[in-house]
Amino acid sequence: MFRDYFCAGTTPRYWRLTALLMVLYLGGIALAFVFGPDFTTAGARAAAALAPVPPVLGFVALEFRRIRATDELRQRIELEAATSALAFGVPLLLALGLLDGAGIVHVRMIFAAPALIGIYLVAQLWAHRRYR
Is the pLDDT of residue 2 over 60? Predict the structure, then answer.
C-alpha cells in the first residue's frame, strides 16, 4: 500500500539521489543554523542561510522527473494532491502568519515546508483513494 501511494515511479537511482540530496540538505541546515550566525559579513551569513535551498530545488527537480515517468492516472493523482496541498496549505500558512504578526501565536517559518509536505501527503492519499 505504501508503495502504491508514495513510491510510484521510483527507481534505485531515485533513492540514491534522494539520499544524497537529504545529506546535502542536512549539511545546509547545519551551516545555516550552527555556523551561519558566526560569520561576520552579511554576504557570508546570507550564503549560509540559503545553503539548504539548492538541495530542496534538486529534490523538486527529482520529483518532477519521477512524476513524468509515471502513467497519466498517476500524474493526475499527483496534480490533484499538489493542487489540494496548495489550496489548503497557503490559507493555513497565511492565517498563522497573520496571527503571528498580531502577536497571538509565535510561528517559526522553518515549519512551513514540513506543514505543506504533510498536507500534500494527506491530499495524495485522498486523491489516490478517489481513483481506486
Answer: no
What span, in angstroms and rounded, lies between the C-alpha atoms of 38 and 21? 25
- On whether the CB atoms of residues 118 and 85 are closer than 8 A, the answer is no
Contact between residue 8 and residue 70 where contact means Cβ atoms under 8 Å apart: yes
Type of residue numbered 91: P
Residues ≥6 apart with Cβ < 8 Å to 89: 115, 116, 119, 120
Confidence of residue 23 (pLDDT cuts 50, 70, 90): very high
d(CA 82, CA 120): 6
pLDDT(72) > 80: yes
DSSP-based helix, strand, coil % in the chain, nearest 5: 80, 0, 20
What is the pLDDT, as a whole number, of residue 36?
Answer: 84
Q: How many CB atoms lie within 10 A of CB 54?
A: 13
User: Which residue in this structure is represented by grid cell 535551498?
Assistant: 53
